[in-house]
Write a structure and sequence with these properties.
The structure is a single chain. With 375 residues, the protein is α/β, with parallel strands linked by helices. It has one domain: 5-stranded Propeller (L-arginine/glycine Amidinotransferase, Chain A), CATH 3.75.10. The chain contains six helices and 19 strands. A three-stranded mixed beta sheet has the order 4-1-19, with helices on one face. Strands 7-8-9 form a three-stranded mixed beta sheet, with helices on one face. The protein has a three-stranded mixed beta sheet with strand order 10-11-12, with helices on one face. The chain is globular and about 45 Å long. The termini are far apart. The structure holds delta-amino valeric acid. The site of delta-amino valeric acid has 11 residues, from loops.
Length: 375
Amino acid sequence: MAPTVVSSWNDFDPLKHVIVGRADHTCIPPAEPATEAKVPEDSDMRGLWGPRPLETIEKANAQLDHLVSVLEARGVKVDRPELLQWNQAVHTPDFSTGTMFGCMPPRDVLLTVGKEILSAPMSFRCRYFEYLAYHSLMQRYFDEDPNFRWEQAPRPRLTDASYKAGYFDDITIEERLKRTASLNFVTTEHEPLFDAADVCRIGKDLFCQHGLTTNRRGMAWLQRHYAAHRVHAVNFPGDPYPIHIDATFVPLRPGLIINNPNRRLPEDQRRIFEANDWEIIDAAQPAHTEPPPLCYSSVWLSMNCLVLDHHTVCVEASETHQLEQLDKLGFEVIPVPFRDAYPFGGGLHCATADVYREGKCEDYFPHQISGTRIE
Ligand code: DAV
C-alpha cells in the first residue's frame, strides 16, 4: 500500500513531517490597501519597500536552518519551499504591486486539514502568488500519496472593491481597538478572503479569527468546503492589528489553550470551551518590550510556539517567561533561537506548516453552544 504522506487534524498531535520556510529574497512590499493595516504608525518600516538587507536574510536563514536541525534530530522530516525571486512586480487583470513578499511563513498560506492541503486566498496583493513556492512539494505529495487532496481556495480578484477606502487614514490605536471590537475591518465582504494562519484547527472544529485578513465570506467558504467540520468565528477585541490567530490563541494539548492576556476571547465565545472542559489560561508575558527591527509582528510572537506532541514544545530561546510557563505546565521545552527570523513573517509556528501529525479527527467539542458557528 502506498504510504500516507499528508495528514494533520490539529496543532498538538505528534509531528512527523513539516515544511519550514526560507528567508531568501524576502521583500518589504510597497504599501497597498491591506498592508497599510498591519504596519504600525511608528514602525521603522513605514515608507520603505524592496528587498530586505542581505545580512538580515543570512541571519534569519541561519536560525531557520537551526530549527530544521532541531526538528530532524527529533525524527521530524522537513521539507523546504522552492525559491522564487520575490523582488518582481506583479500584474494581474485587477491589480499591480511593486514586489511580492516571501516564503518564510508557510503557515500563512497553507492550511492542512486531514488529508488535504489548501492554499488560502490571501488578502494582501503582494502575497497573491506565494503558493507557487510550495507547488513542487504539493506535486511530490500528490505523486507519493494517492489520498492526498491538493486544493486551492477560489483565487480572489483583490480589486479596490475588496478593501474599504481610507480605512487607515489618521487612525489611532484607540480607534483600531474600537473597530476590532465592532468587527469593522479593512477588507469588505466583496469576495471570500482568509489567510490559513487565521484558522486554529482542533479536530472537528475549526476556529477562525475574524480580523484584517479573514472576512465572513471566507469563513462561509471554509464551512461549505469542510462540510464535515464545524467552523466557528472568533474575535479578539484587545488586538489593534488582528492578523493571524497564532500569537493570540494557541492550543497546547487536548483541553488546554493559552490566550494572549491583552486579547482575551470574549465571554460568550468562551462558553463552547468551558462546556467541553477546555481550559483557557493567560499566556506568559513576552520577555521583550519591542519586536526586532523591520518586524511586522508584535512582541507576542513569544507565544507562537511549535508543539511537537502533547508533552514537547519548541519556544523561542529568549522568551524566558514563556519557557517557564510551559515548563510548569509539564512540557519538555526546547528553546530555539528565532528572533532574527521574526521580521520575515513570524515565529516558530508561523515558520512551519504541517504535513503529517499522528492521530485522527477527534470531536473535542461534543457539546456545541450557539454563538460562534458559521452557518
Ligand atoms: O501579534 O503580531 C503575529 C502573527 C503572525 N503570523 C502579532 C500576530
